[in-house]
Description:
single chain; five-stranded parallel beta sheet; TIM Barrel
Amino acid sequence: MRPTVEFLEEGLLERIVSEAIDILCKIGVEIHNKPVLEMLADHGADVRMDNYRATLTEKIINKALVSAPSSFKLYDSMGNEAVDLSEDNVNFTPGSAAINILDYETGKIRKPTTSDYIRYAKLMTRMDHIASQSTAFIPADVEAKISDSYRLFLSLLYCEKPVVTGAFTIDAFEIMKDLQLAVRGSGEELAKKPLTIFSCCPTSPLKWSDVTSQNVVDCAKYMIPVEYIAMPLAGFMSPVTLVGTLVQHTAETLSGLAISQLTNPGTPVLYGGSPAIFDVRYETTPMGAIETQMIDCAYNEIGKYLDLPTQAYIGLSDAKLLDAQAGLETSIGAILAALSGINNISGPGMLDFESCISLEKLVLDNQICGMTQRLIRGIVPKEDFPMIDRMEELLHEQHLLISDHTMKYLNEEHFMPSQTIDRANRSRYEEEGGLTLNQRAHQEAEEHLAGYKKPGLADDTVKDLVRLMEEEAKKYGMDKLPEREE
C-alpha cells in the first residue's frame, strides 16, 4: 500500500472549483495582450479592450479542461525518457531563478557567475534522485537581457536532463525555442519528445501581463509544456484563509489553461503554482511555512480532480544557511508533497525565499529526495511468508547479514544515503575528521564534480548551440560570452 495524505474533502474540493469558475465567469481576468483577448472573444468571452478584461464562460473553461492532456513525459537531450508526469508519479527538480548563491568558502551570499552555473549543471548530472534540472539561478556576468536563454544554453551544454525554465521577456522565447530545436532537430521531434517545461506566471489577483500571456501562447504553438505558477499570498494578495487562497489560485490557473488550450488544444500543461502565506510580522512570503505547504498539497488535489498533472514549489527553505531550519522545512515539504502525489516537486537546493541556491544544500536535498522516494514505495511483503524458514536460519546462524534473502532485497528495502548523511558511530565519526554537515556535503559535491562526464551531444549540435547563443549575445552588445570550462 502506498502511503498518502489528503487535505480536502470531496465536497469542499468541488465547491472550490465551482467558486473559481464562478469568479472567472462573473468577474473575469485582466489580460494585457490584445491578440489573446481577441482569441478569447472569438470563443465567446465577454471582452473589454479598454480595461483589458475578459469574462470567460463555462464552455471555454470546460473546453480547455477536456483538451488538456492528463499526463505527459519529458525526455533528456539524448531523447531518452526521463520524467513521467502521470497519475501519482513523483519527480523532483531544483527551484528556479535565484539571484544569489551561498558561497561555501566565505559562508556569505554573492552574485553567481557562469562558472557557478557550470558547476551546478555538472553536479545535476550526478543527482540520482532529482529527475530534471532547472534554470536554477541567474549568472550576473552576462547581459540581463540574455540571462534566460543563457541559463538554458548552459544547462543543455553541461547536463543531459530535461530543464524546467522560463522567459522574463517575449523576445527571449525565440532563442530559447531555437536552442531546443538545435538539440531535437525539428519542431516535430520537439513536440514528440519535450525537452523543457516553461514556467508561466499570472500576477495575483487575476491578471496576466503581456509577457507571461504571450509566453503561454508561444509555448502552445510549439507544444512546449507549460506550468502555471500562480502566486497568491494569503492575507495580502489573496484571502487570509487557506480555502479562499485556493479558490483564487484555481481561478488564476484555469485562466492560463484557457489561453493555452484555445491557442493549441492538447498542449501539455502542469497544474502548478507558488502560493504562500504572508507573514505580516516580517513582510515575507515563507515557502517553508506549514500553511504554505498545505496550500501546495491541496491545490495538487484540485489539479488531480481536474485530471491534470501537477507541480508545486515545495521542499525548500527560508533559512539563510544550511542549518537545522533548512533541513526541517525542506524535509517536511518534500515528504508532504510526495505523500500527496505531486508530479513535479520544485525546490531542492533553495534557501532564503527561493532567492538563493546552495550547491551543498542541493547535495543534501538529493538525499532527502531519495528518502522520500523510498517512503512512498511503502511497505510490501517480499518473500516474507511463511516466516518460519527465515527464523530458523536466524536462530541457527545468529544473524542474517549474508542470507540470500538479505542479499536479494537489501538495496531495495533499505535506502542507503551518501556520506553527507552521518550514520557513523561517534568514534568513527571522529576518526574521519568530525566533519559538519556542510563540510560533508561540500566534500560530496567535489567528488561528484571530479566524476563528471559530458552529455553525448553531437559536435554539430554543440556548435549550433554556441553559435545561437553568441549571435543572441551580440544583439545586446556582448562581443563574446564568458569563458567556459571544458
